[in-house]
Design a protein that fits this description.
With about 250 residues, the protein is an all-alpha fold. Helix content is about 75%, strand content about 0%. It contains ten helices and no strands. It has helices at about 1-10, 15-35, 40-70, 75, 85-120, 130-145, 145-160, 160-175, 190-200, 225-254. α7 runs parallel beside α10 and α8 crosses α9 (about 190-200).
């Protein structure tokens, strides 16, 4: 499987994919630091996982999937390789890009937060600890990894633009509205924002998760939702990977 991952890495070298996974998190953090200093950290995270992060993943999946699709996958059909492993390589490369983007986001958030505190003497009204920020990024990774096979699969079926619209529309709906309900675990797009309520005490609407905030209920910050949400995300990831892999194999063989 490693050689297929390396092949995808070479195919996407010096492309927009490499720029996106650095530029998008950097822009998110800088905008939050400029526009909302009092709530810099929670707004940075909220803007990131609600819209900009899933948008970036959709664009990365589109770029990775379109390399071969624009030639009707003839480039891989001609090779004596296992088609399922080709698909695995695309997913693993997408996961790698996602991991790098999250590391850039975390480092940028910590760096800008330190600068604001030390040089500008900024006092954040809500200031999560470094441990909470690290945990939030780790949970973001686990609960968002399903988007890679899902977006790759959807892009192969309907194309780039419809995929981005469908993914972003459904994701924002699940994140902002449906994640507040007890059945959030059956909606992969609603799990991340629900778990951020627990870790960072941020509601999907950007308000603090405390009594008096609109849409707040005590069950949103109960820690027993964390293992349940993580488990559900892993199941969704494996399901999307398995289904999309089998579909790709049949499509290429046909």
């Amino acid at each position: 499987m490693r050689k297929y991952y390396q092949a995808e890495k070479l195919k996407n070298r010096h492309t927009s994919v490499e720029k996106l996974m650095v530029l998008m998190p950097a822009v998110t953090v800088c905008l939050a630091g400029w526009l909302t200093r009092d709530y810099f950290i929670i707004d940075s995270y909220n803007w990131w996982y609600i819209t900009l992060f899933p948008g970036m993943l959709a664009l990365i999946a589109s770029a990775v999937g379109n390399r071969d699709k624009k030639m009707d996958n003839r480039t891989v059909q001609m090779l004596p390789v296992e088609m399922g492993s080709v698909w695995d390589g695309k997913i693993l490369y997408g996961i790698r890009c996602m991991g790098i983007a999250l590391l850039v986001f975390l480092c940028m958030t910590l760096a800008v937060g330190t600068v604001l505190k030390q040089l500008v003497q900024q006092v954040f009204r809500i200031d999560p600890s470094t441990g909470e920020m690290l945990l939030a990024v780790a949970v973001l990774f686990v609960t968002s990894v399903w988007q890679i096979p899902f977006c790759l699969f959807l892009q192969q079926i309907v194309g780039t633009f419809p995929m981005v619209l469908l993914h972003m529309g459904s994701y924002i709906l699940c994140s902002i509205e449906l994640s507040l309900h007890p059945f959030f675990m059956i909606l992969p797009g609603g799990i991340t924002s629900r778990l951020m309520c627990i870790i960072l005490k941020i509601l999907p609407n950007g308000l603090t998760a405390e009594p008096g905030s609109i849409t707040f209920t005590q069950e949103l910050v109960q820690w027993d939702g964390l293992p349940a949400g993580i488990t559900a995300s892993v199941v969704w990831f494996l399901l999307f990977w398995f289904v999309s892999r089998k579909w790709f194999e049949r499509r290429i063989v046909r």
